[in-house]
Amino acid sequence: MANEDENSGDVGLQNLDDGSSRSPDLAPKEDGQVRSAQELEPVFDVPVRVQAVLGKSTLEVSQLLKLAPGAVVELDRKVGEAIDIYVNNRLVARGEVVLVEDHLGVTMTEIIKLDGGAN
């Protein structure tokens, strides 16, 4: 199961990768200098695919065809276990499902650091 966000508006992001008090509108450059949010503005409107994966299951086609409303599909995760958050099919974080008013949401609890050679 996955939930997608089609970048339907402005999203307030908080820097979760370290405990610094750096402003959330600043990002480090490769050379260690700080880049302002204004320098990143050209990419603000680039759509990205966000998926929150609750778990996975393997079914045979015959089992899939037998599913009906109310059927339960067992996933490979336990209740309360962290979910995976993918951006453009790349695992970027783990988190928890939360209720925001009458909508489901995701809170990121762990940022997955990319390896230097990963693309």
TrEMBL record:
Q: Which UniProt keywords apply?
A: Bacterial flagellum, Cell membrane, Cell projection, Chemotaxis, Cilium, Flagellar rotation, Flagellum, Membrane
Q: Where is the Flagellar motor switch protein FliN-like C-terminal domain?
A: 43-112
One GO MF term: cytoskeletal motor activity
- What Pfam families does this protein's entry cite? FliMN_C (PF01052)
Q: Give the span(s) annotated as Disordered.
A: 1-38
State the source organism's domain of life.
Bacteria
**Cell membrane as a keyword?**
yes
Q: What is its main location?
A: membrane
Q: List the record's Gene Ontology CC terms alphabetically.
A: bacterial-type flagellum basal body; plasma membrane
Which biological process annotations from GO are given for this protein? bacterial-type flagellum-dependent cell motility; chemotaxis
Q: How does the record say this protein sits in the membrane?
A: Peripheral membrane protein
Extract the InterPro entries matched here: FliN, FliN-like_C, FliN/MopA/SpaO, FliN_T3SS_HrcQb, SpoA-like_sf
Q: Where in the cell is it found?
A: Cell membrane; Bacterial flagellum basal body
Give the protein's function. Answer: FliN is one of three proteins (FliG, FliN, FliM) that form the rotor-mounted switch complex (C ring), located at the base of the basal body. This complex interacts with the CheY and CheZ chemotaxis proteins, in addition to contacting components of the motor that determine the direction of flagellar rotation.
Q: Which family does it belong to?
A: Belongs to the FliN/MopA/SpaO family.
Name the UniProt record assigns to this protein: Flagellar motor switch protein FliN
Source organism of this protein record: Kordiimonas lacus
